[in-house]
Amino acid sequence: MIVITDNELETHRIIASVEDDAAGAIDVFIGTVRNKTSDKTVTRLEYESYDTMAIREIQKIVDTAITKWPIKKVTVHHRKGILKIGDAAVVIAVSTPHRKESFEACQFIIDNLKKTVPIWKKEVFDDGEIWASSHP
Amino acid sequence: MKLTIIAYGIARDILGSNSIEYEIEDSVSHENLLENLKKTYPDFNKLTSLMIAINSEYAKKGQMISENDEVVLIPPVSGG
What we know:
heterodimer; A: alpha+beta; 5-stranded antiparallel β-sheet; B: 5-stranded mixed β-sheet
């Protein structure tokens, strides 16, 4: 299940959504808002998303992961809007029969999400703001 | 033809709007459109990358754009 939402991410419910009797492992990745970028103090992050395409692109990544590992269930939730330090921006949960596959599949999904999914992060500092990764 | 171009993130800041009406020749590839946009808005040249999505998919090499397509500018993504 793939969700992009303005609401706070409910990690426990996301984990529960991938529980499966045939799974011996659930791996969870939680991306959280850090208080610094390089040496600048971050006050908040603002995420925005091109929702219809973002969901499609996440689905493609999930579909590829399903061909590579024996995934029982997978859920990806991404937050948008204004996030404060410590908030979860993304939660990915994957269940598989054995642990190795769940680690690998979860890492594959977050690594590719960062490359292709049309979601943008603005970092707001005390003295300005910047769209992450926008300039070389 | 007149295209509606939607922009997110820093591309929206460069356009100064969520969406613009952009006049361009009738038969145009997304590569041509990008070249034109970079001339109209030189700040696009400073970005690490700039891609076009047509109807919620990344444009493929040589893909042509029609008047009713949903055309969206995709600056460097930074989700996660």
